[in-house]
Amino acid sequence: MKVLGISGSLRRESHNTQLLRAAAALLPPGAELEVWEDLKAVPPYDADDDTGEPRPGILRSLDAAVREADVVLLATPEYNHSIPGQLKNALDWLSRPLAASPLRNKPVAVIGASTGLFGAVWAQAELRKSLAAIGARVVDRELPVGLAAEAFTDEGRLADPELELALADLLAELRGEVPQAAAAR
Amino acid sequence: MTTAVQQDLPAATWALDSMHSTVGFALKYMVGTYRASFERFDVTLDTTGEQPRLSGSVAPDSIDVKDEHFHAHLQAPDFFDTERHPAITFESTAWRLEGDELAVEGNLTIKGDTRPVTARGELTPPHEDPFGGTRLGITLEAVVDRTHFGIDWNNPLPKGGLALANDVKLHVDLQLVKS
């Protein structure tokens, strides 16, 4: 099973990228997580630039990465109680045209970390709402990792065993959305 | 005083004249009623047994809407999830006809959930048509709660309440030709 991870935070030392790495360690055998690291290069969505002509390479690469993945795992921080603009912007590109979006029927789960207490729960909820509107098969769960600066061990695992268990459960539910043949590959 | 009249239909199977039939629904959306219909469906009426049996299937991806993005959203897991549930089906379990008034009970399956429904309407008895055939007409309506079938999408209104109603009025207007 191919898992595409996208972190909504562009920062080099991002807690959300760290959370994706922690998730990678909890995947079932045979499953592999590839993190898409080019989010910063995505241009702003502009319908005038969305003409039906081939899109810039960065957008084609994003489209292909989603299309080739069996599932997508998004880790989002929370900016002003909502989704970081650059992550939402990437989804806006992926959503057009809606009938051909690589996210249509794609199993997707959302997790999130923040340095505050609440672990980006609002951003996660808004992200799930947008993904559902795009037509993804959204796992109806959240994984709020609060106080992110202290949430990881030196080995990169989640320090709280209950949270780690919840993340493993969420990944199992995500895997359950994948047809068996693809899940086994 | 009214007298119940159970009319006998000739023993036959009756096939759909799809060009002259309609399957659709209506529900409240914000300040009005949203109506839509489906392009592809099939219905059979079998009157060879002890009681008539009505069965039908609708392709939800054939919903006729005016915007391609809206059409795509309706195919998604938020609504009909047509990738996993390509058909809406109905199988009747009981048929009651009193005069022209028809009530049909049956099992309706939407998005993989099967529930009993009772639909009410009218039957127009068999008539000969100009093409050498014999046809009858059936109109039926039923109200179902879409959330019972896992269609839960909604949008909150700024001052409270929700944009889309749960109760959906289903309607069929069928012309069936004797095979």
Blueprint (SSEs and pairs):
The complex is a heterodimer of chains A (185) and B (179).
Chain A: E1 2-7, H1 15-24, E2 32-36, H2 57-68, E3 71-75, H3 85-94, E4 107-113, H4 121-134, E5 137-138, E6 144-145, H5 161-176, H6 180-184
Parallel strand pairs in A: 1-2, 1-3, 3-4, 4-5, 4-6
Chain B: E1 13-16, E2 22-29, E3 32-38, E4 41-46, E5 53-58, E6 63-64, H1 68-75, E7 88-98, E8 101-110, E9 113-128, E10 134-145, E11 167-178
Antiparallel strand pairs in B: 1-4, 1-11, 2-3, 2-11, 3-6, 4-5, 5-7, 7-8, 8-9, 9-10, 10-11
Structure, explained:
The complex is a heterodimer of chains A (185) and B (179). In chain A, 36% of the residues lie in helices and 15% in strands. In chain A, strands 1, 2, 3, 4, 5 and 6 form a six-stranded parallel sheet that branches. Chain A is globular. With 185 residues, chain A is of the alpha/beta class. The model of chain A has no long low-confidence stretch (mean pLDDT 95). Chain A is built from six helices and six strands, in the order βαβαβαβαββαα. The termini of chain A are close together. Chain A has one domain (2-184): Rossmann fold, CATH 3.40.50. In chain A, β3 (71-75), α3 (85-94) and β4 (107-113) form a beta-alpha-beta unit. In chain B, strands 1-4-5-7-8-9-10-11 form an eight-stranded antiparallel β-barrel. Chain B is mostly beta strands. Helix content of chain B is 4%, strand content 53%. In chain B, β8 and β9 form a beta hairpin. The radius of gyration of chain B is 18 Å and the shape is elongated. Chain B has one domain (21-178): Lipocalin (Beta Barrel), CATH 2.40.128.110. Classes of the chains: A alpha/beta (185), B mainly beta (179). The A-B interface holds A 97-99, 101, 104-105, 132-138 and B 68-69, 71-73, 75-78, 83, 153.
Share of helix among residues of chain A? 25-40%
Q: Just name the CATH architecture of chain A.
A: 3-Layer(aba) Sandwich
Tell me the name of the CATH class of chain A: Alpha Beta
Run of helices and strands of chain A: EHEHEHEHEEHH
CATH topology of chain B: Lipocalin
Strand order of the largest sheet of chain B: 1-4-5-7-8-9-10-11
The description of the largest β-sheet of chain A is:
6 strands, parallel
The dominant shape of chain B is elongated
The overall strand count of chain A is 6
